[in-house]
Design a protein that fits this description.
The protein is α+β, with helices and mostly antiparallel strands. It is 39% helix and 33% strand. An eight-stranded antiparallel β-sheet has the order 1-2-3-4-5-6-7-8, covered by helices on one side. It is globular, with a radius of gyration of 20 Å. It starts with a helix and ends with a strand.
């Protein structure tokens, strides 16, 4: 290839790179900010509610089966993620049977992105919410927080520290039970999943931990105020 051809090839790559980075960076920042906000809102309330969570779990499960809003974990699970074939905005709104509590819309380099939040899910606490992100009308991210989960014993810092990269989701679920929240993304064909544990966690008020999975195996973890 001639020097002129090489220069032209480099110029093309240079022009494409900033566009690719800006899209990924902006979408991921929005996802993190919104989901972190929902976690912060319920962090302090979870510790005071832990004693009442067990007694309310059975009744919340019963009410979930009689949902009139459609804001359930089952419907959340039905949302598929892909920037080309993910569940449409219309179908998600129809599934949840009511308008979002809040909406954030942005357009970057002719790519439109919407983040919709529905507050107060069935089977969740008073701060529970579902957040779904869309790119050009297709779901690419979804998060659910504030799910009520009963635990037979509190999860300790020692147990958290023992979690090894490579452990499966089945391993984590068997050891700690279901998480209080899920955060999943599929952007540009790259998928990730995070589980959040906020109830039954041993530590100071608001103690919690997150586990990140890549291809179904643990790839990272973080904790706050655990003992």
């Amino acid at each position: 290839m001639s020097k002129k051809g090489n220069d032209r090839y480099k110029d093309m790559n240079y022009k494409k790179k900033p566009f690719y980075k800006r899209i990924w960076f902006w979408i991921l920042v929005v996802i993190v900010i919104i989901f972190a906000g929902s976690q912060m809102g319920k962090g302090s309330s979870d510790s005071s509610k832990s004693s009442s969570s067990d007694s309310s779990t059975a009744s919340s499960a019963s009410s979930s089966s009689k949902s009139t809003t459609g804001l359930t974990k089952d419907n959340f699970d039905k949302i598929s993620l892909s920037d080309s074939t993910g569940t449409s905005e219309k179908d998600v709104k129809s599934m949840f049977k009511k308008d979002p509590t809040s909406t954030d819309t942005q357009t970057v380099e002719n790519v439109s992105a919407n983040m919709y939040t529905w507050s107060g899910i069935d089977g969740g606490d008073i701060t529970s919410a579902i957040v779904v992100g869309f790119e050009n009308g297709h779901a690419i991210s979804k998060a659910i927080s504030g799910l009520k989960v009963s635990r037979s014993s509190k999860i300790t810092l020692a147990q958290f520290n023992a979690i090894q990269n490579g452990a499966s989701k089945t391993d984590i679920q068997k050891q700690f039970g279901d998480p209080n929240g899920y955060d999943l993304t599929n952007i540009g064909g790259q998928s990730s999943e995070m589980w959040s544990y906020t109830s039954g966690v041993n530590g100071d008020a608001g103690a919690n931990f997150n586990i990140t999975f890549t291809n179904g195996a643990v790839s990272g973890k973080t904790q706050l105020s655990m003992k």
